[in-house]
Description:
The chain is mainly alpha-helical. The chain contains 4 helices and 2 strands, in the order E-E-H-H-H-H.
Amino acid sequence: MKLSIGGSVHDPDDPVGRLLFNVLAMIAEFESDLIRMRTREGMKVAKAKGRLRGKQPKLKPAQEAHLVELWRAGQHTSAELAELFPSLSTVYLAVGRAGGPAPALPPPMSS
């Protein structure tokens, strides 16, 4: 691999070419750090102004309360609730926010 800048060709195997490649890598890393720093500063400003709220919940409070009520009743499996509500992870998050897992269903009757 060779780099051509302004008509001169630089090979990374010779000392000048190696120096040039290292300088370019340092500049790229510096730019990346600047972008990261500006992003963090912008997020701090947005958070201070109340504009950075994060991801919006998928369920309204009443829907989440209904989901937790169904879960705690123990008549539905988490897979069945996931069919009624957006996803299985939504079911687990809602139950977790409400205070943990519901009591386990009774074991099946054996004959």
